[in-house]
Amino acid sequence: MTRRSGPARLVVLVSGAGTNLQALLDACADPAYGARVVAVGADRDGIEGLARAERSGVPTFVLRVRDHADRAAWDAALTDAVASFEPDLVVSAGFMKLAGPSFVARFAGRFVNTHPALLPSFPGMHGAADALAYGVKVTGATLFVVDEGVDTGPIIAQRAVDVADDDDVESLHERIKTVEREMLVDVVGRMSRDGWTINDRRVTIP
Ligand code: GAR
Prior knowledge:
Layout: E1 8-14, H1 19-28, E2 35-42, H2 48-55, E3 60-62, H3 71-83, E4 89-92, H4 101-106, E5 111-115, H5 127-134, E6 138-145, E7 155-162, H6 169-194, E8 197-199, E9 202-204
Parallel strand pairs: 1-2, 1-4, 2-3, 4-5
Antiparallel strand pairs: 5-6, 6-7, 8-9
Helix pairs in contact: 1-6
Bound molecules: glycinamide ribonucleotide (GAR).
């Protein structure tokens, strides 16, 4: 995908601590990075991810599913809110809701999600815990283009992380998150500066 001129406009969606968001905010402080976070959206109040955005002077919005008549109404509201910021790229960074069909269609090809496992292994809400329980020796992080499925879209980048014998879910997830943040900053920056193409399932950043 090619972009308009100027830094790429990122809208980031969060549900929790927002350390991936913080990594992007920090990277965007350098004009050479080629992107800026124009808004941060969440599905809940009172989270550190929103506080991080506010401390950086980035506009925020909160849309809770329970404040809408049904999931489709929430999806439409989320779509409108994100679209109002005219993003070049929408980044789901620890956003613990499945965006619905209208959202996925509206931002097709420019909605990416970061996941704490090597997809297609261990999709869903508990990527680190599921990998640990299965007993794999290597897991990692995946950045992918969101499609209509659950963590099934075309893969943009992956990083591997060894599982240690004494890992618990927290220690493993923290180690994954360290490489995940580096991957996210690296790849979103390259996508922002250089664009990207998607052919079938193959994503290429020139
Ligand atoms: C990240 O590890 C992200 O991959 C994961 O939540 C964490 C958010 O951390 N997302 C999922 O599991 C989505 N299925 P953060 O709030 O500190 O950025």
